[in-house]
Amino acid sequence: MATITVDDSRRAEGIVILRLDRPDQRNAMSIEMVRELTAALDAIEHEPGVAAVILVGEGKGFCAGSDVSALARMDNDGRRDFEEASGRVARRLSRFAKPVLAAVHGFAMGGGLTLASACDIVVTAPDAKWSLPEVPIGLFPAWGLASVVDRVGKMRARRLAWGIDVLDGNEAEAMGLADVVAEGPTASAIAIALQLAALPRLQTELIKRYFSAERAEEKADQAANRLFMQACSTPEAEISFARFLAKSGN
């Protein structure tokens, strides 16, 4: 079953909507989802008729981050490789040739928060929950923190990374994680995407190219991945992995 749905309902207006489609797993990122999102981006990046991309989540929320139940079933090499692949797809969003918007409802947690923060424009529902819960369960945010630092600054990013705060959409916007608060985040994201689609196409893409993340972001993810692997070897992480395995029935 596909984990990414390509919604072409607005393609005539220059917009493609990519839907994270694992609602029963809170759209937690799996190996398949990372591969399918990468493939979807590959397919549309250079289509002349596509002016903007919107990333949304199906079901109750945007994305709950990495699938911890799947991580629990992996060995350490598999965990490292999966988190590296997740970081690559997030960096791909920030370097994508066309503007990428995130429409967040319900929750953006862990990798869901860092995935959204990699997008150019983030629209959030006022009651959406934003958090990085990795440290409290004995893990470490393995990728995407550089984009969080870009948005909120180093000191606020560090506090978020400790996992002691859960923000609502208004607080996320005030901090800089999100750009717009709207009761209907997808509709608002579409309206903004239509504005972008009406601009001269080349000039819009040149702006994106100018502001794209540099290789420093990749180095930051590599450092985070090493710390993630160190955290995975702790008793706290093993307890959390066992708990998530029990929840998943595996």
Can you characterise this structure?
The chain is of the alpha/beta class and 250 residues long. It has one domain: 2-enoyl-CoA Hydratase, Chain A, domain 1 (Alpha-Beta Complex), CATH 3.90.226.10. Helix content is 50%, strand content 13%. The protein has a 6-stranded mixed β-sheet with strand order 1-2-3-4-6-8, with helices on both faces. It has a two-stranded parallel ribbon with strand order 5-7. Helix 5 crosses helix 6 (154-162). It is globular and about 55 Å long. The model has no long low-confidence stretch (mean pLDDT 94).
Rg: 17 Å
Q: CATH fold name, please? A: 2-enoyl-CoA Hydratase, Chain A, domain 1
Please tally the helical runs, counting DSSP H or I stretches of 4 or more residues: 11
SS class: alpha/beta
Largest beta-sheet details: 6 strands, mixed
Identify low-pLDDT runs.
none
**Helical content class:** 40-55%
Strand content: 5-15%
Strand order of the largest sheet: 1-2-3-4-6-8
Number of domains: 1
CATH class: Alpha Beta
The succession of helices and strands, N to C, reads: EEHEHHEEHEEHHHEHHHH
* Shape, principal axes of CA atoms: globular
